[in-house]
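Protein modeling request. Please complete all fields; requests missing the sequence field cannot be processed.
Requester role: graduate student
Desired output: 3D structure, token encoding
Chains: 1
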Amino acid sequence: MLNYNNVLKDELNHNGLSIREISPVMKLNLRGKRREFFTTVGKNLNMLLPTEANTSSVSDKLTSIWLSPDEWMIVSNETVQKDSNRYELEESLYNNISKTNLGAVTDVTDQFVLLELKGENIFELFASGSPFNFNEFREKKGSATQTLLNNIDVIIHHKDKNLISLFVRRSFSQHLCSWINDSASRL
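Delivered output (187 residues):
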């Protein structure tokens, strides 16, 4: 893992809403379409990739988030060692998927910042800065979407009631955190 400073030094709390950065967490991008791709990924991850739009699947160690019909983000459910960018899972997937031309495996750990938001006002915060309609999304645990939040591309994963994982590109993370901090204080 590259030596980045955390975007948030401490947990932010406003009106029953808490925001904290979860770091370091392995994040891999997978792309593929063929049946052999799904079989190989399933064996390596010990889980099925979600095939329904805007959903996710979860195992003890990993979460798989659907991004498009042939793209997923695989996220570790636990923090990983910060001193290395080498992941056994990535090497296994790369050797079994990329090297055999079944699809592509890309490490996006350093590209995305993972923020965890907890509280009852999460969707009010999102509604104030996103064109996405969260009415159905808020009722479906495990749902995921790619949308804009304050004109910044984000991936939002609904982990549980009042618990959201938000992925934002590192280059926009400081700006988004400033907006979240400011907007959350006005809820």
